[in-house]
Amino acid sequence: MATGDSSAAPSSAQHTEIRAQLEQVLSAPAFASSARRAQLLRYLVDRALTDDSEVNEYGIGVDVFGRPPSFDPRIESIVRTELSRLRQRLAEYYSDEGRQDRILIEIPLRSYRPVFVFRQESPAPPASARATEVGGSAQRRWPVAAIATIALAILLGGAATTLRLSGTRANLPIRSLVVLPFENYSADGAGQYLADGLTEELTNDFANWKEIRVVARTSAFQYKGKGADVRQIGRELGADAVLEGSLAKQGDHIRVTAQLNRAADGYHLWSQSYETRTLDMLTVQKEIAQAIAAAVRRLGGKAPSQATHPATNNPEALDLYLRASYQYARLTPASVQESIGLFQAAIAKDPSYARAYAGLAAAEIELGNFGPAPEADQKARAAVLEALRLDPELGDAHGLLASIETYSDWDWPRAEREYRLAIEKGAQPGTRAVYGSLLAARGRFAEAQAQCATAENLEPLGVAPRFCQAYVFYFQRQFAQARKTLLETLQMNQDAIYAHVLLGRIALKQHDCAAVAREFALGARRLSASAATLGLAYASACRGETERARGYLKEAAASAQPPYAFELAMGYALIHDTDSAIEFLRKPTAARGLPGVLVEPAFDSIRNDPRFVELEKMAGIPR
What does the longest C-alpha to C-alpha distance in the chain come to? Predict the structure, then answer.
């Protein structure tokens, strides 16, 4: 259940209660065994009760940890480290021995001033209510159902909400929002997929609010575990407000805290804590939804008045879906394979779960990118069509279908219709970025640039929008600008391995032959070893060593399963072996690259060959 209000300043009587609660907390083993942790908590509580002046990192370092006046918190992170540990110990205390305590002592993220929450007693629901879902379904596990309901409650509100809306500054409308990754305070780390899942569910739900710009999950996750100031985050992401929180799971008990801050000045707008043992979270949802709906409308101005319809009402299916999404996001062959089984299990629990079908389709497509995956395209197509049958408004499913129609069917008119539908129905910004890249591959550079720019606005720190920009520059032969964009991308995300592959192709056109081999070797860290061999072939072609390049191309063709047919065709075009280039372009495994044949610089030397022109027609690319 949601906890009580903390917005009012404590009265004198409450001061006494708070100090008694402090002593009770400090007597717990986790605090009694650490004098420094106890001293830090006592200092923060005392300052909150007796002094209205700002508590800062420097003051804590000097007053609590005995640092000298020369202490520089930018260099030494002891205060941030100890605050993080203190928050985790408090979360563990209140999820175990302190779960019945009337007063909660919380230290909000990115703040040094405690918040005191006076909980109100609320009777537990009857056993029949706890064990039954709407419609009389069998008993469910609470932690799973909690995620959907907590996400809904945070979106739509609750009676125990803490709001600080008095004054002109606090009433500034929220037109853009970012949901930061919820911190996982579970003792054994088992709640990580729940924390990540809650973050993603909230982001997806907010994205349905047409009047509010929501920063994409991929950009928000760049701040995971970094402790950046909300004002900095707001500036970098262009967000008016930042929603953040934490999750602690112990057994079947989960405690979630969430808070909303205005990014311009870090002003605390709203906070709430949730903890419950009830299994019937739909009942809890009904009790709190209407009250929080009013609060969100006050904060955002145009928030919906009704709850977002949940993607599934089956808590076990949701749990499996969140586990699957967590594994898929790791993007290794093993994790993607595991996600497929979990998505299938979620579908078995709820055959009407459209998002699970879309997740399955995405995983099947990704598995095919790693290597041989028999029938992956057919399985992906079947899954995405079922997702759209169940929910025609699912934008991401339209984007997946567009991908299949682009690379498997070579049906660009149908693919473009699906891309536009995906964007219209709120697909992830990455879908818009892919569409922009494909427009660039067809020489529609102005349209492509517009799509890239919009994707970057929604996903300021995402890789996909920058790849989109890089391809626009690359296909226009603006190689220096494309290289600059890719280097900036790698500064943001060193795991953007495909940036090295495109940098290698750019180095080839700039006649930097040493860089060609080097960049492909870097890309091969996540791809197959044959990617490095291709780099050696391209570098040899760059130096005019035709026979050496041919030898490397044959080696790459023999070692890669399936062979990189499009990339091999590029290699043969570079050594002016048109017959071999056309032969590899005709292979089914070249399909993923064919949309770019019209403007790919590597094919400039063979572009007027009639067989090449025919391939362009097959790919649906008009001259």
Answer: 89
Phi, psi of 453 (to 5 degrees): -65, -40
Is 592 part of any domain? yes
Give the C-alpha distances (Å, rounded to integers) separating 291 from 287, 296, 305, 372: 8, 9, 10, 53
Same domain, 112 and 136: no
Task: Give the residue-averaged pLDDT of 507-526.
Answer: 85
Domain that holds residue 36: 12-118
Q: How many residues does the chain have?
A: 623
The span from the CA of 14 to the CA of 116, in Å, is 10
Q: Is position 536 within any domain?
A: yes
Structure tokens at 426: 């709120």
pLDDT digits (tens, 9 = 90+) for 479-505: 999 999 999 989 888 877 789 989 999
Same structural domain, 547 and 596: yes
Mean of the pLDDT values across residues 362-387?
A: 86
Cα–Cα nearest to 469, from 455, 458, 461, 459: 455
375 vs 540, more confident: 540
pLDDT for position 526: 66
For the cut 80, the answer to whether the pLDDT of residue 570 exceeds it is yes
Residues 184 and 281 in one domain: yes
Q: Residue 169 maps to which CATH number? A: 3.40.50.10070
Q: How many domains does the chain have?
A: 3
Question: Would you say residue 60 has pLDDT above 50?
Answer: yes
Interior/surface letters 490-502, b for 16+ CB within 10 angstroms, e for the rest: beeeeebbbbbbb
Among residues 310, 335, 353, which one ends one of the domains?
Answer: 310
Q: What pLDDT, on the 0 to 100 scale, is given for residue 381?
A: 95
Continuous segment of H or E residues that includes residue 82: helix 78-95
Pick from 371, 367, 364: nearest CA to 560? 371
**Tell me, what's the pLDDT at 589?**
63
Picking from 118, 147, 172, the residue at the C-terminal end of a domain is: 118
Q: What percent of the chain has pLDDT over 70?
A: 78
Phi first, then psi, for residue 307 (nearest 5°) are -65, 145
Do 172 and 257 lie in a common domain?
yes
Is residue 126 reached through a cis peptide bond, with omega within 30 degrees of 0 on the bond before it?
Answer: no
The pLDDT of residue 620 = 63
User: Does 355 reside within a domain?
Assistant: no
**CATH number, position 530:** 1.25.40
The reported pLDDT for the residue numbered 130 is 32
Whether 437 maps to a domain, the answer reads no
96 with 17, same domain: the answer is yes
Closest CA to 378 of 361, 395, 354: 361
- What pLDDT is attached to residue 478? 95
Coarse DSSP helix, strand, coil percentages of the chain, rounded to the nearest 5 percent: 60, 10, 35
Provide the terminal-to-terminal Cα distance of the chain, rounded to the nearest Å: 63
* 300 and 188 inside one domain: yes
pLDDT digits (tens, 9 = 90+) for 212-261: 788 888 888 888 877 778 888 888 888 888 888 887 777 767 777 777 78
Q: Which residues contact 272 (CB under 8 A, 6 or more apart)?
A: 2, 3, 153, 154, 158, 160, 161, 162, 257, 258, 259
Q: Which residue's entry shows tokens 């192709």?
A: 505
Q: What is the mean pLDDT of residues 456-466?
A: 88
Same domain, 57 and 206: no
Q: Give the three-class secondary structure for 269.
A: strand
- Which pTM does this prediction carry? 0.67
Both 225 and 288 in one domain: the answer is yes
- Span 450-463, average pLDDT: 89
Residue 164 pLDDT: 42
DSSP E strands, 121-264: 162-163, 176-179, 183-184, 213-214, 241-250, 253-262
